[in-house]
Design the sequence.
């Protein structure tokens, strides 16, 4: 039997790599993206009978085809980036905050509430200050609730944050009905369209503000995680709660504090979405970005600077794929297929960074053994 | 080796799947690249010279929604007839994305941009304010007549007339069931699945009910709301609830195939909306009313191309063929077509009013006065007297419906305001 085993060595087997030089790791990632593009090209060509190069040109055009498209791409990037950065400290602490969606929504709802309820009662500057404070506070509270239960009774944060999403969605649905115009229509519409009360100020053009905010948050988060005491505590709690406790860190306090930050930043993203971009609130305003951000954050290995690239990649693909479906008259699901293929390759390639495949050596070498 | 074979097989399957999708792609592609040149022989229309303009369209969903499909088909029909170039953007949410889509279409050189969903309105207005040279047309909206923009327009059709006729088909079916002894006259209860408790929906189910009651006087109706314009599960569940509640005929104002499918499963006759659902409900489909948007698209595109101003608030009617009924399905009762044609002729010549106040009561009393919120405001304040000469004048002060009375005979099971 043992003899047979030796003879019937499998075609290949998988071995964990010790460590891999950064250059080689990036090489694998670039190869994966290229492979993904090839598969996408094949799929698209079969479907549209179009030359793959023009398909890629269309993807590029979708993101950068005109000045407006470029700005929108960067605006989308900024929102996704803020949400990803918001989730990162929690993830680093191994606190699985998948409640970004709800934290963004509730922040947006708070901003909308200020815009609607305070119009005519305060001047514009005061309304905006109220919006900033309440959105961040609302998001922080949405993060605080699961953190408190986790710290106090060690409840499962994944479930708690997920369920908080549904509460936020239903609250938004409830207030949509309260504030809808006209009656019965199920939509709020642009808030204060004529007066522009509570609209965040435009810096340069209407896209730049969220981009600047995202840049500040990125740098701030990088410094916070890498050079502050808090950042260090987060890393230690994430590695081992017992170690943290042993060296005298107040683990509960770290958990709650980090989730306040995480939720608050999501609330900030909600503020940007409602006060700066859409000027309305709907149940779908976060558009699943609370979940996409989980992937963005993971792909970047929780590094805020890398996150700029990973969120750019997702946004670029999304906008490019959307353009393909418009240009070639395809159903929107097609863009999801393309994005799915590309993400599959990108996530899949991480496997090859951590593991390597050894193929069966030729018979001669085996005999020598 | 086995694994490799399996892989190869699955790859083959994927490829063959792709091949299946091809035909659809091709047609839509060829439709889109059609230019003026290919259709210059078109001389039948009132357009004497080829129309030169690029049209852009924004749709909330894609062809999977009956509502959007109705728009998409009409857009293709109108553009092909006029021989113009057009761009379609599907799955545009009711948010800033709509503004961006409209602006992108304007950037791309579209001279006229249409949007199909109610929630797109404010974002279309925003785009209209920015692109003064481009015409923005929004279907089902309420604000154009008060907004005062030269390049922003609303449109709707007097679909309540179509609903009324569809209601007659429903009433005929109820009569048939009563005659066959399947139900007693008192059991003639209709079920209706509405999206929101919104004037457009209320106007729709009330006119439908009045049509049914005009031929089946004992008819009553129950309405349930889903709180969404497109929610297949909720619509299916709504239909099942109504069927369990002894409703013997179902109709709906929501955009998925949920209700027709549920009706087919339960064997309950269905009056549909937005177009025929006979494909999913061959045995239970009676008839469907729908708005035909092609006349409006043609009107607006022609005017825009000629650089002429056109109506800020356009209402299509049954006379302009903006309101259509599909062919009758197998479930329709005999004599339905004749009854519909007779009523249609009366609607066209004006001798029959759908919301004749003599035909309905509210809380047991006839309605003599009603102030409707025609000029949309956040306080829902009534601003127009809409009872004129003994009838509720729907879609005359504004194209989008504003009928929102709860008439006797209709029970609301819930509400989604």
Sequence:
């Amino acid at each position: 039997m043992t003899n047979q085993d030796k003879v019937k060595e499998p075609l290949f087997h998988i071995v964990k790599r010790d460590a891999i030089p950064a250059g080689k790791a990036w090489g694998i990632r670039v190869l994966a993206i290229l492979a993904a593009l090839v598969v996408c090209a094949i799929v698209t060509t079969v479907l549209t009978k179009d030359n793959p190069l023009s398909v890629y040109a269309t993807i590029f055009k979708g993101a950068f085809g005109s000045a407006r498209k470029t700005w929108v791409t960067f605006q989308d990037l900024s929102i996704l980036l803020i949400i990803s950065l918001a989730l990162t400290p929690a993830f680093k602490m191994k606190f699985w905050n998948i409640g970004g969606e709800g934290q963004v929504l509730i922040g947006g709802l708070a901003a909308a509430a200020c815009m609607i309820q305070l119009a005519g009662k305060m001047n514009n500057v005061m309304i905006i200050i109220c919006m900033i404070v309440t959105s961040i506070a609302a998001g922080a509270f949405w993060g605080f609730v699961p953190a408190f239960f986790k710290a106090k009774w060690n409840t499962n944060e994944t479930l708690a944050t997920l369920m908080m999403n549904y509460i936020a969605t239903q609250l938004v649905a409830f207030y949509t009905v309260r504030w809808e115009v006209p009656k019965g229509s199920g939509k709020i519409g642009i808030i204060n369209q004529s007066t522009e009360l509570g609209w965040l100020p435009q810096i340069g053009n209407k896209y730049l503000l969220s981009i600047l905010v995202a840049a500040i948050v990125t740098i701030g988060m990088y410094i916070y995680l890498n050079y502050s005491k808090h950042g260090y505590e987060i890393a230690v709690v994430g590695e081992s709660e017992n170690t943290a406790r042993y060296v005298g860190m107040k683990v509960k306090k770290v958990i709650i504090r980090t989730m306040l930050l995480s939720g608050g930043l999501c609330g900030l993203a909600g503020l940007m979405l409602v006060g700066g971009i859409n000027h309305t609130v709907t149940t779908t305003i976060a558009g699943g970005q609370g979940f996409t951000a989980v992937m963005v954050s993971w792909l970047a290995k929780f590094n805020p600077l890398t996150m700029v690239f990973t969120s750019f990649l997702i946004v670029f693909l999304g906008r490019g794929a959307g353009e393909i479906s418009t240009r070639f008259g395809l159903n929107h699901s097609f863009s999801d297929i393309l994005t799915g293929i590309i993400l599959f390759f990108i996530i899949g390639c991480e496997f090859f960074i951590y593991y390597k495949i050894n193929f069966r050596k030729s018979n001669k070498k085996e005999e020598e053994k | 080796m086995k694994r490799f074979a399996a892989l190869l097989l699955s790859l083959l399957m994927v490829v063959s799947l792709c091949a299946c999708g091809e035909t659809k792609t091709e047609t839509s592609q060829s439709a889109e690249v059609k230019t003026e040149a290919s259709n210059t022989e078109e001389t039948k229309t009132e357009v004497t010279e080829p129309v030169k303009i690029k049209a852009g369209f924004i749709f909330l969903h894609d062809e999977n929604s009956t509502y959007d499909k109705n728009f998409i088909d009409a857009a293709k029909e109108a553009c092909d007839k006029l021989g113009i170039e057009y761009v379609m953007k599907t799955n545009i949410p009711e948010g800033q994305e709509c503004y961006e889509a409209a602006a992108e279409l304007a950037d791309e050189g579209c001279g006229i941009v249409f949007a199909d969903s109610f929630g797109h309105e404010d974002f279309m207005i925003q785009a209209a304010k920015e692109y003064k040279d481009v015409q923005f047309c929004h279907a089902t909206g309420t604000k154009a007549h008060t907004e005062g923009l030269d390049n922003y327009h609303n449109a709707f059709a007097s679909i309540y007339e179509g609903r009324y006729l569809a209601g007659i088909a429903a009433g005929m079916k109820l009569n048939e069931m009563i005659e066959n002894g399947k139900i007693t006259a008192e059991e003639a209860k209709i079920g209706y699945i509405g999206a929101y408790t919104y004037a457009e929906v209320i106007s729709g189910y009330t006119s439908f009910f009045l049509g049914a009651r005009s031929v089946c006087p004992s008819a009553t109706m129950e309405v349930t709301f889903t709180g969404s314009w497109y929610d297949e599960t909720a619509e299916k569940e709504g239909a099942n609830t109504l069927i369990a509640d002894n409703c013997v005929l179902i109709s709906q104002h929501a955009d998925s195939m949920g209700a027709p499918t549920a009706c087919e499963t339960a064997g309950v006759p269905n009056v549909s909306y937005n177009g025929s659902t006979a494909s999913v409900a061959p045995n239970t489909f009676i008839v469907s009313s729908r708005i035909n948007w092609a006349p409006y698209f043609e009107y607006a595109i022609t005017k825009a191309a000629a650089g002429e101003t056109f109506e800020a608030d356009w209402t299509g009617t049954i006379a302009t063929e903006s309101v259509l009924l599909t062919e009758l399905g197998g479930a329709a009762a005999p004599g339905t077509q004749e009854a519909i044609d007779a009523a249609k002729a009366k609607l066209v010549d004006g001798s029959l009013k759908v919301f004749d106040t003599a035909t309905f009561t509210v809380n047991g009393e006839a309605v003599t006065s009603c102030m409707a919120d025609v000029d949309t405001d956040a306080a829902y304040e009534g601003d127009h007297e809409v009872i004129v000469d003994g009838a509720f004048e729907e879609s005359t002060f504004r194209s989008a419906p504003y009928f929102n009375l709860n008439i006797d005979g209709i029970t609301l099971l819930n509400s989604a305001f």
